[in-house]
Every structure is written in C-alpha cells, then in structure tokens.
Amino acid sequence: NAIASSTSERKQQQDLEAVSVEAEDTTPNHCTSSFQVLVVSAKFKGKLLLQRHGLVNRCLAEELLYIRAFEQKTLTPEQWAYEWQK
C-alpha cells in the first residue's frame, strides 16, 4: 500500500526529519484507499496545524494521488511524549 510502505515511511523520515511515522490502512476491506497517519517531527515546532499538514501533503504528493481519504496527526516530539504519558 502506498502510504504504509517502507519507502513512504523512509521518505517522511528523511524529508520531514520524522522521529516516528505510523500509518494504518483504515479501509474496511484494506484496499488501500483510506489511511490514518501519525508523524512526529521537530520540524512541526511553531507551525500551525494547517502548515504541518501542508508539509506532510507535499512530502506524500505522489502517494496521495491514489488515496481517497487521508487523516493525519502531526506532533512535535514534546507533544508526542505528552500524549504517551496520558
């Protein structure tokens, strides 16, 4: 699948300097047309949510051509650490 492939994860880790990338195919029959992605990167620090999503969208522009639904959660490492403490 396009988004969850190791190539896409590597691309996000390199382009976005992501410390963590998690992708899940949320399509009921797993036909890879709907995804949820969590990306953790220090590059998101000080950026608005829309700006963060724009960074991810540009990074995955080719892959997104084949996706119908794409939900993303973008966190800084500090926000991610806080989420895990809950």
Protein model, in words:
The protein has one domain: GMP Synthetase, Chain A, domain 3, CATH 3.30.300.90. Helices cover 40% and strands 27% of the residues. It has helices spanning 6-15, 49-59, 61-64, 77-85; strands at residues 18-25, 34-41, 69-75. The chain has a 3-stranded mixed sheet with strand order 1-2-3. The longest helix is centred in the middle third of the chain and has 11 residues, at 49-59. The chain is globular, with a radius of gyration of 13 Å.
Would you kindly provide a brief summary of this structure?
This protein is an alpha+beta fold and 86 residues long.
Strand portion, in percent?
25-35%
Number of domains: 1
Number of strands: 3
Runs with pLDDT <50, length 5+?
Answer: none
Sequence-ordered SSE layout with sheet pairings:
Blueprint: H1 6-15, E1 18-25, E2 34-41, H2 49-59, H3 61-64, E3 69-75, H4 77-85
Parallel strand pairs: 2-3
Antiparallel strand pairs: 1-2
Which keywords apply here?
alpha+beta; GMP Synthetase, Chain A, domain 3; three-stranded mixed β-sheet; 3 strands
